[in-house]
Amino acid sequence: MSITKKATIVAVGLGLVTLSACGSSDGDQASGGDSRTVTLVSHNSWAVSKDVLAAFEKQSGYKVRVLEDGDAGQAVNKAILTKDNPQGDVFFGVDNTLLSRALDNGLFQAYEPKGSDLVLPEYRADQDKHRVTPVDTGDICVNYDKAYFSEHKLTPPDSFDDLIKPEYKNLLVTENPATSSPGLGFLLGTAAHYGDGGTSRSSEAENGGGWTDYWKKLKANGVKVVDGWEQAYNEEFSGSAGGRKAGADRPLVVSYASSPPAEVIYADPKPKTAPTGVAEGTCFRQVEYAGLLSNAKNPAGGKALLDFMLTKTFQDDMPLNMFVYPVSEAAQVPEEFVKYGPQAEDPETMDPAKIAANRDDWVKSWTSLVLK
Predict the structure, then answer these.
(1) pLDDT at position 87 over 60
(2) 3-class DSSP assignment, residue 7
(3) Are the C-beta atoms of 266 and 10 separated by less than 8 Å?
């Protein structure tokens, strides 16, 4: 999603978008480049309604240029490499799995947008420095193809433990955590659930070797790994519209809890029920952030855009465009989410400090274990 996102759920493929603006703003005198243009750098699942962007344009006087730059992990890495001469003014799409990498590399400068007081407390981060702003949230979960399991008279999995059972052999596709935000979220979910071999939430894991032991079993059970979410969901997963067209043969995929509503909303004709479901016992809570890039050429425009991302107008619009949940207490969750894609009641979570301390080592260990 995204949770962004994520995000994140539908391959919108907007590419490079430039939108006209009218009016004026005190940001017109921002130094460097076209001071009436603000550039947003994002992962490739950014989407927003035209009328919502038009509202921002009318209010601020800025043109908005959107530059999509691959999967969230790829986009963050590229933003870090180009931080001294950034591609834009605002970066959207860094999530809690990658946040420390962005902050430690000085990607953002401090700014606390208007409306920050309405962000639900559980989604706030970096409160002492205000380098990032929470924008959306979502749950990374295994999705399943209902038709496949019905045809094969097989109960869909509902937990991490289920995925290593023989009846689910060669059914799961996931993303590489080194290159994909949902892939990393899934890895962190297993680490949160199984631990490093000590206390965990799983009775089975208490007698095993933690998350590495679990992934050995998952590998032995035929898990398939691809680079990013779009390939996994739209090419490999048999339950998605894209996967059905591609002849996909994997009925389990790491995606989001909000993917089933997308399958309903974009279907023609619309089904009465979602064709896909969520294994709720595999969910990991993701939060996506935006921030003002450290060397932004138009910081005034960037600040105005960050302010707008926390307005009720933007927060209400976001769920049915990026298929993520809003973070503002003033926003309204759409009916389709409540019916087809509710948030997990008890998702796995992990303290950002623990993610920062272990993420890179865990990804290296995972790569050696699963890909070699």
Answers:
(1) yes
(2) strand
(3) yes
